[in-house]
Amino acid sequence: MLEIACFEITSAETAMKSMADRIEFCDNFELGGTTPDFYEFLHLKRTSKTPVYVMIRPKGGPFFYSAVEFIQMKSSMIIFKEAGANGFVFGILDSHNEIDEAKNLELLELAGEIPCTFHRAFDRTSDLEKSIKTLIKLGFKTVLTSGGKSDAMKGKENLKNLIEKYSGQIEILIGGGVRSDNISELKEFTGGTSFHSSAILKYDTFVTEGEIKKLKQGCS
C-alpha cells in the first residue's frame, strides 16, 4: 500500500492520476502539514475515486493544542466527514509529549466508521511500544511512523520491531524520507507493507508521477 502526502492541489491531482493507493491531503509543507482547503478537497473528490485521507491539524509546531484549537479540529472533522472524506489523519499529545487519550478519543468518536491515522506525533512520545498499545486500544486503524527517529532509514530497527509485534493489530505506515531509492531496502529490512511518501525529489516542489511509479514498484 502506497500513500502519497500532497500539500497542494497540483500534487494531489498528479497523485490521484498515478499508481498511488490513497493520498493524504494537507496544506503547508513547511509546517509538516495542516488542515487543507475545504473547496480544494471537494474538487478532488469530484474528479477522482482515489481515497483521500484529510489531515486535521490547525497549526504547525507542537502537537499540544489549546481549547480553541481543539474546537477547530472537531469542526473541521465534522465538515470534511459530511463532504466524504475517506479517512482522517491527526494526533494530539499532552504537554509532556505523551498521547492525550481523552482528546484523541473524542475525535475518533466524531469520525465514527471512518478510519483514522495517528500521524508522526507518535514519534515524539517517549515509549513507542507503550504508545502503539494506546493507539490500538483507542481504535486507530493506522499509525504513521519513522520508528521514533528523524527518518525511516534511521528508525528501521524500531520499525522492524513494531511491525513484528503489532502489525496484526494496527496498520504500521512507514514514513519519513521514504523515496524510490530506499523503499525496497525498508521493505526488506522491516517486513513492512505500507509506505507513505511525498514523492517530491530533491530540488523539486511538486510530486512527480515517475517517482510514484518507482515507489509503487519498490513496495510491490
UniProtKB/TrEMBL annotation:
One of its GO terms (cellular component) is cytoplasm. Keywords: Cytoplasm. InterPro entries: CutC-like, CutC-like_dom_sf. Its main location: cytoplasm. Pfam families: CutC. It comes from the Bacteria. It is found in: Cytoplasm. The keyword Cytoplasm applies. GO terms for molecular function: copper ion binding. The keyword Lipid biosynthesis does not apply. Belongs to the CutC family. This is PF03932 family protein CutC. The gene is cutC.
